[in-house]
Design goal:
The complex is a heterodimer. Chain A is of the alpha+beta class. Helices cover 39% and strands 15% of the residues of chain A. In chain A, helix 4 packs across helix 7 and helix 5 packs antiparallel against helix 7. The mean pLDDT of chain A is 92. Helices cover 51% and strands 14% of the residues of chain B. The relative contact order of chain B is 0.12. Classes of the chains: A alpha+beta, B alpha+beta.
Chain lengths: 213, 370
């Protein structure tokens, strides 16, 4: 277990004492317990989720995974939850962007997990997807990148990912790959900046998924 | 069923059925008094200076209180708690009359002496106006199965085999085979705290409702009423893990004919096949005839509940369970439904705030390998 992982787990358990079981394995750590969705303004408890969190030894470069073991949500693709309770919080690149550089496990819970559970509860109450949703698998990733970078076609998104994985190099003064007639430094170079703290492996994986479409 | 919530008509029907059953069952205060009485008898036997001091015995409840299928008795009758006093006797040292008499001795020399009523197999203690406790003395004679007992039968002057604990285990096991009970699921999905009426599993509720229907149907014709043990056993035999009270009852009613025909019109104790609960049907064929009509009528009425029509539902349920039981159940039902609807009227702004993150492109999607 690396030092940051150890510290972050300690901090996490202190902040969320209901996450009360920890199992250390050679590949990573499992944490079990409960997470409550409560609105502090009115003290309403909207749900108490039984959860499992897996944090690999490659944390934080590899994202933690959260599993919803409760009965509150159906475990279906439609709900973005796998049969084993695995929650698809957002496209991985977006998870890194929301978490920010050098995130902690507490950040993971507060910035990603609790909002996800809150949207699930809102969905149960008939309010639809509060933040909207992407389609599943590669299609969803394509939608995500398109929306994030205003690139309208699959080919352009693939171009983007090739740049992000380092497969293609493009100079600051070259014409931007998106066909806008602007120089790269005045066009998509800035947009790509938002992905700067996302590990390269994420783009490699996403590229494979989108190529399969 | 796609959307399991308290807005769904089928779920609502089960809420109503559960509330009708809940309103006619043994209430908690009386149950607590029964538990005290039970402990007191246990203490009494443990303190006996002669017979019970020298034997290996245990006490346990049986019957509808044990399996959770109690209903309010009709008219002036009282609730009934059945218990067994089981003595281990592998050497056949005692005869049936003796065990019975020893129990009688202890009770008659206690403060219960004026409440004691002797019956054919058991001894009754009458807690007047509240409930009565039927104590069945039994002896375990088989070393391999501590559920198989023999009980004294005064009329026959002999022992008859019985297996009340085995029966209770059989029934509870069937009840626990339920798959995803819809009431429990609805509470989870709506993130509401589970209420009492939803805690009892569908098979138990079905048996309660069958008994309630039996009381209503035979109210002017008591001699022909089908016994509770027959109703309970058929329900248990035919139950097939249904998730709702409605489906469980529908399945049982639809399959009774087949079951009766396949079993030579006999309904035997599933844990003691030599015990035939329908032996009276041979001497009195009327009983079987009435039972068949009783089932037929229920089937017709139960089908009508499928039509989600408020007026029709009310008429049907009143015919089945009596106006009174329906009204009391309906009142609890209404209270609960309006409570559950209130959560939809709640202000969600704070929850929506919690759900919103820093990023407009934060949306759930589904990745492959999970």
């Amino acid at each position: 277990m690396n030092k940051k992982l150890k510290q972050d787990i300690e901090d996490l358990i202190k902040e969320f004492p209901s996450l009360d079981r920890k199992i250390v394995t050679p590949s990573g750590v499992f944490i079990y317990g409960k997470l409550q969705v409560k609105t502090p303004e009115d003290n309403i408890i909207w749900g108490n989720f039984d959860v499992k969190i897996y944090i690999s030894n490659n944390y934080p470069r590899e994202l933690p995974k959260i599993y919803d073991l409760s009965n509150i949500t159906p475990k279906t693709t439609e709900r973005h939850i796998g049969v084993n309770g695995g929650c698809c919080l957002a496209p991985p690149a977006e998870e890194f962007i929301i978490l920010g550089h050098q995130y902690s496990l507490i950040d993971f819970i507060n910035k990603l997990v609790i909002p996800f559970f809150a949207t699930q509860i809102l969905y149960n109450l008939g309010k639809g997807w509060h933040n909207g949703e992407y389609s599943h698998y590669g299609k969803g990733l394509l939608e995500y990148y398109s929306e994030k970078t205003s690139l309208k076609s699959k080919e352009l998104v693939i171009n983007l990912l090739n740049i992000l994985t380092g497969k293609i190099k493009i100079g600051r003064n070259d014409d931007c790959f998106c066909g806008s007639n602007l120089k790269y430094k005045k066009c998509h170079l800035n947009i790509i900046d938002i992905f700067k703290f996302v590990p390269r492996e994420v783009f490699v994986k996403d590229l494979i998924a989108i190529n399969c479409l | 069923m796609r959307d399991i919530s308290f807005k769904n008509e089928r779920v609502k029907l089960d809420v109503l059925l559960a509330n009708i059953a809940e309103s006619i069952q043994l209430d908690n205060t009386r149950k607590e008094r029964m538990e005290s009485a039970y402990s007191a008898i246990e203490t009494l036997l443990n303190e006996d200076e002669s017979f019970f001091k020298d034997v290996d015995f245990e006490i346990y409840p049986q019957g509808s209180v044990k399996i959770g299928t109690t209903i309010k008795p009709m008219k002036d009758n009282e609730f009934d708690l059945d218990i067994v006093v089981q003595i281990v006797d592998f050497e056949n040292s005692y005869d049936s009359e003796e065990i019975y008499n020893q129990l009688k001795r202890v009770l008659l020399s206690s403060r219960y002496k004026d409440k004691v009523v002797t019956k054919n197999r058991c001894i009754r203690i009458d807690y007047a106006g509240d409930f009565h406790m039927d104590i069945l003395p039994g002896v375990q004679v088989y070393t391999d199965d501590k559920n198989k007992i023999v009980v004294p039968d005064k009329k026959l002057e002999t022992w008859t085999p019985s297996n009340p604990r085995g029966y209770a285990e059989w029934f509870l096991d069937k009840s626990n085979k339920v798959i995803e009970p819809i009431l429990e699921k609805a509470f989870s999905m709506e993130a509401l705290e589970m209420e009492e009426f939803a805690k009892k599993k569908p098979l138990k509720r079905t048996v309660q409702l069958l008994k309630l229907y039996r009381d209503e149907y035979f109210k002017n014709d008591l001699e022909n009423a089908t016994s509770s043990i027959i109703l309970t056993t058929i329900a248990g035999e035919l139950y097939n893990s249904e998730s709702s009270i409605y489906d469980s009852m529908e399945n049982i009613l639809n399959n009774i004919d087949l079951y009766i025909n396949n079993n030579e019109a006999k309904i035997v104790n599933p844990v003691n096949p030599d015990e035939n609960f329908t032996d009276k049907w041979i001497e009195e064929p009327n009983l079987k005839f009435h039972f068949i009509k009783f089932v037929q009528y229920a089937k017709e009425l139960w089908m009508r509940l499928k039509e989600d029509n408020g007026v029709q539902t009310e008429i049907t349920l009143k015919s089945l369970f009596s106006e009174n039981a329906y009204q009391v159940g309906l009142e609890s039902f209404d209270n609960f439904i309006s409570k559950s609807e209130k959560i939809y009227e709640q202000d969600f702004t704070n929850l929506e705030q919690l759900a919103t993150t820093s990023s407009p492109t934060h949306k759930p999607y589904m990745f492959d390998n999970e």
